[in-house]
Task: inverse folding
């Protein structure tokens, strides 16, 4: 997915599009009087996009890709195509984020 896309190939843009989608869902939930879904409250998370992305990478995406690497017949390809980019993107979010 977009989390393992190199930063220079649109990682940040795809993450922002995803967050916009979540926030639009939250806006609709608010209008309808529904409980707010996790990460969908624009007022709570808009300033913390970098924190959200790094948490998602650390808690879900990186462990998943590392597990995939371990069962893959071509571990080096998974490392190069996914794990390396995940780690680099996390660093970039630290640099660019609040």
Result:
């Amino acid at each position: 997915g977009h989390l393992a896309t190199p930063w220079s190939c649109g990682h940040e843009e795809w993450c922002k599009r995803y967050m916009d989608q979540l926030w639009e869902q939250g806006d609709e939930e608010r209008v309808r009087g529904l409980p707010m879904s996790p990460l969908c409250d624009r007022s709570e998370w808009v300033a913390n996009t970098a924190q959200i992305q790094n948490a998602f990478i650390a808690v879900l995406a990186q462990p998943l890709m590392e597990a995939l690497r371990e069962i893959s017949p071509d571990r080096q390809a998974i490392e190069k195509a996914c794990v390396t980019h995940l780690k680099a993107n996390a660093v970039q979010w630290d640099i660019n984020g609040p």
